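We modelled the chain as a single entity of 179 amino acids. Its sequence is:
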Amino acid sequence: MKGIVFTEFLELVEEKFGLAMVDKIIQQSSLASGGIYTAIGTYDFSEMLSLLTHLSNNTGISIDDLLLAYGEHFFGILANSYPGLINTYEDPIELLSSIENHIHIEVQKIYPKAELPTFEVLEKTSSKLVMVYKSSRAMYSFGLGLMNKTFEHYDSSATILMEKIKKDGTEVKFSITKN
């Protein structure tokens, strides 16, 4: 997993819960990296899972809710860091439907070793998008947060329904209807 995901996560934890919480979850997690991340480094996903688990245990907030908030936060990072990529699209449905065939290709150019989820578009109209998220990492709530902020970015709203295809969350169907 790319380091930017870790560095931004810890920034969010510090912003929301304080530096003491960042230190606490790093200490509790016994990380191979020691909790020292660079944005361009690559780290084992188990470290993120450990950080999330300890943050959840210390705050009483579910991992899914933490990932949702983190996805919403991370959209802002992407929009500020790569405005040209986001602003290529004039509509949230267009942006979301292009994740696999455009956005992820551009991400791979910047982070060649990034292990990205896949998004298979099953249905697309101007007001509806149905796609299947597949990842061994079950971070679908992070994806939902990104989707929520995508609609907000375009001054739009949507109803987004999630259906777990696999119980462990490694395959999730998103049905998105623009309001």
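As a brief sanity check on the tokenised model: The chain has eight helices and four strands. The first helix runs from residue 3 to 17.
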